[in-house]
Write a structure and sequence with these properties.
434 residues; mainly alpha; Ammonium transporter fold
Length: 434
């Protein structure tokens, strides 16, 4: 018996042990990245509840429908062409249009799909994780144009934005393009996801115009409060929860040291952002503002996303604090510009996305004057392309099928005007008897 056991031990060669360890690593990596993708998927519920909670009740069905369709469109268009555009392999570093059916036509027995011949995870794991990211950029735009954009034109815009704009800019860094070669760094997408969505939100909010009653003749802004801050609060916590997958999954492995660091820096930045915005609203506004504080949490999350793997804890706190202050004053400044942003998407995703990207050159392991230059180059290149792309698409849609609903439909609400449905059909005006 003892001799048989010794023989079995001797049969386990170093090569066999290494192969077993690699197989276990491959399995764990796939499980973690797929789980992270599921967490990111939950973020779309968070976006839907934040946007609906911060908007008028008469537009709730419209907002929920938009958010549901964005994720559906995102999966289909990313499979059709977006994934290939974003990860084309060898290309000129600026632009490529791979075969449209390149992803969905691959044979199931292709070893690159299901084994470590592709990477430390399967092709399908990679696609799933990246696809749930893709729709996020269009979801950001949705919040900035809520309450006055036509449904059909918005869905046309979202399809083009997710299928072409987001993958092209993403390829410049994550696909091995010229920004990657330059040294630009964006760990999980402060610029590549959030600023892309933020630039799109800014342009589309300008093109579609403000909601009725938002601005007075003298340029001053009127508050149009959301109908359900409970929904908005739930949405922010769902987003924070999903961000553990957004940033943690971007490690692209189950490395316990790095994943745990990323989860801690992500949480600390979010907490600091919420505290900073809450204090800013209390000090400068006279009362603590819940909706501002919720956006402060999101600001901290967006701010840390570019460098969550490069920061120590105190640096993540500082990044979150600055993001929280920035988002407070940015919301006020956007109103001064007479740009109507019902949920603060421009301030949260664009302004804090830019800040988080710059922070990689100021704090953390990569901090240096040269890195600041690389970060500025990436911010400028991606911002310029996204603005021009969105202008072309937005103006074309506006000139053909239109962007804005009628004033009468705004007053009635997009739920009835666009869907002939009400989210709260049992709600009745309160009757007070004398």
């Amino acid at each position: 018996m003892a001799q048989e056991a010794e023989a079995a031990v001797e049969a386990v060669t170093p090569d066999a042990a290494l192969a077993a360890a690699n197989e276990a690593k491959f399995l764990v990596n796939n499980l973690w990245i797929m789980l992270a993708g599921c967490l990111v998927f939950i973020m779309h519920l968070g976006f839907a509840t934040v946007e609906s909670g911060l908007s008028a009740s008469k537009n709730t069905v419209n907002i929920l429908f938009k958010n549901a369709m964005i994720i559906c469109i995102g999966f289909l268009t990313y499979a059709l062409c977006g994934f290939n555009i974003m990860y084309p392999g060898d290309f000129n570093g600026y632009f490529t249009m791979s075969a449209v059916s390149g992803f969905i036509s691959r044979p199931l027995d292709d070893p690159s799909l299901m084994t470590s011949a592709y990477a430390d995870y399967t092709w399908y794991t990679d696609f799933f994780f990246q696809a749930v990211f893709a729709a996020t950029a269009a979801t950001i735009v949705s919040g900035a144009v809520a309450g006055r954009i036509k449904l059909g034109p918005f869905l046309v815009f979202s399809t083009i934005f997710v299928a072409i704009c987001y993958p092209i800019t993403g390829s410049w860094k994550w696909g091995g393009g010229f920004l990657d070669e330059l040294g630009f760094y964006d760990f999980a997408g402060s610029t590549l996801v959030h600023s892309v969505g933020g630039w799109g939100a800014l342009v589309m909010a300008i093109l579609v115009g403000p909601r009725l009653g938002k601005f007075n003749a003298d340029g001053s802004a009127n508050a149009i409060p959301g109908h359900n801050l409970t929904l908005a609060c739930i949405g922010v916590f769902l987003l924070w929860f999903g961000w553990f997958g957004f940033n943690g999954g971007s490690v692209l492995s189950a490395d316990p040291g790095l994943v745990s660091l990323v989860l801690v820096t992500t949480s600390m930045a979010a907490a600091a952002g919420g505290v900073a915005t809450g204090l800013a609203s209390w000090i400068f506004g006279g009362k603590p503002d819940l909706s501002m504080s919720l956006n402060g949490i999101l600001a901290g999350l967006v701010g840390i996303t570019a460098g969550a793997d490069q920061m120590v804890v105190w640096e993540s706190v500082l990044i979150g604090l600055i993001a929280g202050v920035l988002v407070y004053f940015s919301v006020l400044f956007v109103d001064k510009l007479r740009v109507d942003d019902p949920v603060g998407a421009i301030s949260v995703h664009l302004v804090c996305g830019i800040w988080g990207t710059l922070a990689v050159g100021i704090f953390g392991a990569l901090a240096s004057p040269a890195q600041i230059g690389y970060q500025l180059a990436g911010i400028g290149a991606i911002g310029a392309f996204t603005v021009v792309f969105t202008l072309i698409v937005g103006i074309a849609i506006k000139a053909t099928i239109g962007l804005r609903v009628s004033d009468a439909e705004q007053v009635e609400g997009l739920d009835l005007g666009e869907h002939n449905a009400e989210c709260y059909p049992d709600f009745q005006p309160a009757v007070v008897e004398a």
